[in-house]
Q: What sequence folds into this?
């Protein structure tokens, strides 16, 4: 049986420095009702709209670690830990899949944010 430290050391990990994050988080869904009156013809419309900005989708094989190695296309049970290099927070959106993850920065700054990413393979 492996101890906790031995189990952690058997996992692969990559440090991706200076990754540019431009994505913004989704703002959620909103419902709206539209009442229209054109030439005495009335209509009522109901719809649900997802108010969203662009969440940044990143495939693991698009990343290069601090040694210059490209990450594999698939990572078993990955965990991505972002560390912002500025005062603007960055975060992973949703759950990472074996081939990609979604990341965003806090709204409020117009420019992309630079962050270091620690990508860890947690395994099964």
A:
């Amino acid at each position: 049986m492996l101890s906790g430290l031995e189990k952690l050391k058997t996992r692969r990990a990559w440090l991706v420095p200076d990754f540019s994050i431009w994505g913004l988080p989704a703002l959620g869904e909103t419902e709206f009702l539209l009442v229209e009156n054109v030439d005495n013809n009335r209509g009522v419309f109901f719809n649900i709209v997802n108010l969203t900005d662009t969440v940044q989708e990143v495939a693991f094989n698009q990343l290069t670690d601090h040694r210059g190695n490209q990450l594999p296309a698939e990572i078993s049970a990955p965990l991505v830990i972002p560390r912002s290099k500025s005062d603007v927070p960055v975060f992973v959106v949703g759950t990472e899949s074996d081939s990609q993850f979604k990341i965003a920065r806090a709204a409020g700054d117009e420019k992309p944010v630079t962050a270091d990413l620690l990508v860890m393979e947690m395994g099964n």
In short: The helical segments are 4-9. The longest strand covers residues 28-38.
